[in-house]
Amino acid sequence: MLWLIFAIIPAVGDGLSNIIDGHLSNNKFHNPWVLLFYSGIMELLFLPFVLLYRLPAIFSFKIMLFFPIIAFLDFLTLIFYYKALKEDDTSIVASLFSLGKIFVPVLAFFVVGERLSPLQYLAFFVIIFSSTLLTASSSGGKIKFNKSLLLMFLSSLVHSIEGVIYKYVLESVDWVSGFVYVTLFSILGFIIIAIIKNKEVKKQFNTFKTNFNLVIFNSSIAFIASLSSVIAFSLAPITLVKGIFATQPFFVIIFTYFLSKYFKTNYKEKMDKGNLIKKLVIFTVMCVALIFVIE
């Protein structure tokens, strides 16, 4: 069950990181590309700690080609995600990552041949359906969904494809090499962003300096979560790992409650009694389904 520990770490870590992302995206950095640049650069500062553990190996050209693809897909995932944070509650945005998980079992079956039991698939879809209900609202007898639905559909779909490709690569490489090479290719992406968005990056540099402690704290959490997820992918079927990730919104609610109670900061999260009960009921259903997923 070691994989379960490494799968829970990203769910908890990203839950806290989601809240900070929402705060930075809505109140500090108005351009998602600029936020991606500064956050990504801070994450790179932690890479030497992984290199101290083990250096990456050299692989065939075919395998090496996958690393820039994974890095690019990760960029797209984050851009759609940052934009969605401007449209809806942080916990709801986090839950919408489950939309893309519909494609994970299908992609994992065709790419790496993973199979789960029918009960596990059923529980997995209960988690997805429960998460999707969070975005629904009724007006004039019609069910409507927030704009975040489309943005997070794209984000989660790209993220799912990225995860399956990552899992495929990890069948041939160790997790250290996989993580390091993807991170190194991300550097190229950050350089491209700095060139294309040069004016915006310079314009918001003072914002970055003012919020440096928060950005680097958030980046450290994101780095640990990302590293743990790669280890989890190397130890267990991607469908199970992604199923654990689906509990992330539950931790968003918990962290938001305590942060809003002790820190006077505007977090994009509806915490009134009605919305809170709705979210907690749906998250409870997700947790019950999760028990069947991991058995």
UniProtKB/TrEMBL annotation:
Gene3D superfamilies: 1.10.3730.20
Keyword terms: Membrane, Transmembrane, Transmembrane helix
Spans through the membrane: 33-53, 59-81, 93-113, 119-137, 175-196, 216-238, 244-264, 276-294
Keyword Kinase: no
Chain ranges of the EamA domain: 2-135
Annotated Gene Ontology cellular component terms: membrane
Entry-linked SUPFAM superfamilies: Multidrug resistance efflux transporter EmrE (SSF103481)
Pfam hit, one: EamA
Domain of life: Bacteria
Protein name listed in UniProt: EamA domain-containing protein
Organism of derivation: Candidatus Magasanikbacteria bacterium GW2011_GWC2_37_14
